[in-house]
Structure formats: structure tokens, C-alpha cells
Amino acid sequence: MISIKLNEKHEKILQIFLIVATYSMIILRFLLNEKGRVSPDSIRYMRQSEVFPIIDNTTAPLGYPLFIKFFTFFEIDEFWSSKLVGILAYTFLLIFAYKKNFFFKEHLIASALFSFVSIFSFTMAEALTLPFVILLFYVSHQILNDKISGKTGIFYLSLILILLINIRYSALFMCFGTVFFGLINFKKSYWKSFVISGIVGIGFYGLYKILFIDYFNENYLDTFLEIGLKSTPTLLLELFQGLATSFNPFIHIADPNGGIINYGIYGIGLLTIVAMGFLFIKTKLAETEKFILIISIVCIVCSYFIQYVYSVNAIDYRLLAPFSIGIWLVFFRKLFQIFDSWTYAIAFLSLMTGFVFTWLSK
Predict the structure, then answer these.
(1) At what angle do helices 63-72 and 126-144 cross, to 10 degrees?
(2) What does the buried/exposed string (b/e) look like for 5-40 if buried means 16 or more CB atoms within 10 Å of the residue's CB?
(3) Which residues of 268-285 are buried (b: 16+ CB within 10 A; e: fewer)?
(4) pLDDT per residue over 95-148, tens digit each?
(5) Which residue in 102, 139, 257, 341 has the most C-beta neighbors within 10 A?
(6) Of 322, 247, 334, 335, which Cα lies nearest the Cα of 286?
(7) How many CB atoms lie within 10 A of CB 159?
């Protein structure tokens, strides 16, 4: 017997301890890190927030800067407002998953992975996307299980996709994934809900491009569209490295100087991907799990191909976070079915690894 089942009381104590440890690591991640978990893109977000309602660039949507702006009304500066957004995003995930009994245990572990701890502590929009991604999964779950009507489902799915686009332009890929899922299930009653919602999201992005991006930045396409920026071998190598680090449950950043340690980092990530593929193929997937996997994979594929025509950073754990979290949730659900409470060990090992990494890099 490879599984161990804790009684309800002991499991709740373990979950509370894990939550406290995750909050502590999120806070330590930006307190001990010498840069406070910011980057040039982070500074741009904070500037967008500071100068609003003046629009000085359209490189990113206004959703994340406006959330930062909201908290500055409480006498908090942009830096600490961004940290509060990340902590509240994590808090929302916990409360929502618990109240709705929707992948709660899986959320506890996924959120405690060092890569997602880094996301919640980073002044970047990905942290804010995660609650809306989970809302998208939940509404889809309700549609797939006939808990809400078609029209209601279309309304909520469309609304969530629109909100996501207002936070990250890459949410357009989720619209494509939603349409794709509907089309491959065209014989089922719910297919129209997904296709129509995805089309609404795509249409909104088109209007957003014309009415907002082009209005404030006429040269947007000339600036960011660049054919053949990188060769295919380079992009494939970056894709492998990005996937291997994104799906490494312990270390999500490789040594830029190279070295033997990177073989271990990429190796663990590759083994995790193989384990995921094996479990997803060999075990029965519920309709909700199929939706989560399909939309996540479509988004990752789109993230790769967009690089042929659009100037973006190399694929890494941060860019893939909104698309990888769903895969992690399904993976941990399968692990719970096999190992039960042993699965929590992954979260604690990841947090311990993260603490050592954060302490050494302070």
C-alpha cells in the first residue's frame, strides 16, 4: 500500500500549517530578495498605475495597474500595493476553492510550489490572472455538469475571458482554447456555450485593439510584430527549458551560467512532464479535467508559435503560470488518488527548497 490517509482532524492541521508556511514564504520571497521581486516590467506596471488616468503606453492592459492604483487610495505606495495584490490573489484562491469544494487540496499544493510562491510575490500581472483562470475553470465545470443554463454559462465565460484580456493580452489564447474545446465536442449539448464565449472574447480583443491600443499607440504593430526574430532551433530550446523549469516542482530557474546543476533542474522537470503524460493517458479524466488540460495545452502551444511573429520574452515559468496551474491541479488530483496524503510532501519539499534558494539569494 503506497498511500497514507490522514484522519480529517490531522489533515486539517496539516493544511493550516501548509497555508501559514506558504504565506510566510510569499512574504519572505520579496522581503529577503535584494530586488524585492521587481523587474523593468514591474516598474512599468507601477508607472502605469501612478500616472493613470494618463495613458503613457499600451504594452500591457490596464487591469493590473488599476488594481495597484486602487490600493494606493489607502495610503499604500505602488510597490506595496502590488505585493498586496499578490497576497490577496492567493487568499482568493484558497477561499474560493474551499467554499466551492473545487480542487481545494490541489490548490493548496500548487500554490505552495516555489514557482507559484514566486509568482504571488512578484510585481507582475500573472498573480492577478490566476484567480480569474480558476473562475474560468469553475464556470466551465458548472456548464459541463449542467449546473447552469447555456445562456448563463455564455455570459459568465465571456465575462471572465474579457476580464482576463484586460489583465494579460495572452488571455486571447484562452479564447482560442475555449473555442477549440467546444468544436471538438460539437456533438455534445454544451459545445455552443464554449464556442460562443470564445468568439465573444476574441471579438472583444479586436475591439480593444482598435479602440484602445491603436488609439494610444499607432505604432504598436510596427514595434512588436517582428517576423523571424528567433530561429526555430532557438525557440525549441527555449520551449524545452521553459517547460522543464515550469514543471519542476522544486526549482523553476536554471543557472544562466550553465553547469551540471541545470541537468538536474531540467531532468526533474522532464520527469514530471513524463509522469503527467502517463497519468493523464492511463487514468480516466472527468470532463472538467479534459477542459482544463485542453485549454492549458492550447495556450502553451499558442505561446510558442506567437514568438515567430511577436516580440516577447523567452517562455518561462512566469509566462506559463496562468496556463500551467490547471495542469498542476489535474496532476495533483491524480496523485491524491494514488498516494493520498503523501501528496502534501511535494508542497513542503518545494517550500523548503524555496526557502534555501531565497535565503542564498538575499
Answers:
(1) 110
(2) eeeeeeeeebbeebbebbbebbbbbbeebeebbbee
(3) bbeebbeebeebbeeeeb
(4) 999 999 999 999 999 999 999 999 999 989 999 999 999 999 999 999 999 999
(5) 139
(6) 334
(7) 17
Tell me the pLDDT tens digit for each residue of 264-281: 999 999 999 999 999 999
Indicate if the pLDDT at residue 227 is higher than 60. Answer: no
Instruction: Assign residue 254 a region (left: φ > 0; alpha: ψ between -120 and 50; beta: otherwise).
Output: beta
Q: Which of these, 170, 160, 162, lies nearest to 124 by C-alpha position?
A: 170
pTM for the full predicted model? 0.94
Whole-angstrom distance, CA of residue 234 vs CA of residue 242? 12
Distance CA 130, CA 328 (A): 13
Over residues 247-256, mean pLDDT: 89
Q: What angle, 0 to 180 degrees and rounded to 10, lies between the N-to-C axes of helices 260-282 and 232-246?
A: 80
DSSP label of 171: G
Q: How high is the pLDDT of residue 106?
A: 97
* Cβ-contact 57, 217 below 8 angstroms: yes
Residues 6 or more apart from 24 whose CB is under 8 A from it? Answer: none
CA angle 306, 154, 107 (to 5 degrees): 65
Q: At what angle do helices 104-112 and 344-360 cross, to 10 degrees?
A: 20
Query: Residue 249 and residue 265: Cα distance in Å, rounded?
Result: 10
Query: How many other C-beta atoms are found inside a 10 Å radius of the C-beta of residue 108?
Result: 23
Report how far residue 224's alpha carbon sits from residue 310's, in angstroms, rounded to the nearest whole number. 6
Contact yes or no for 177/299 (Cβ under 8 A): yes
Cα(35)–Cα(289) distance, integer angstroms: 38
**Residue 62, SS3 per DSSP:** coil
C-alpha cell at 176: 482560442
Of the candidates 247, 29, 23, 19, the residue with the CA atom closest to the CA atom of residue 123: 29
What stretch of H or E contains 67? helix 63-72
Q: Residue 130, exposed/middle/buried by CB under 10 A (0-12, 13-18, 19+)?
A: buried
Ramachandran area for residue 148 (φ above 0: left; ψ -120 to 50: alpha; else beta): beta
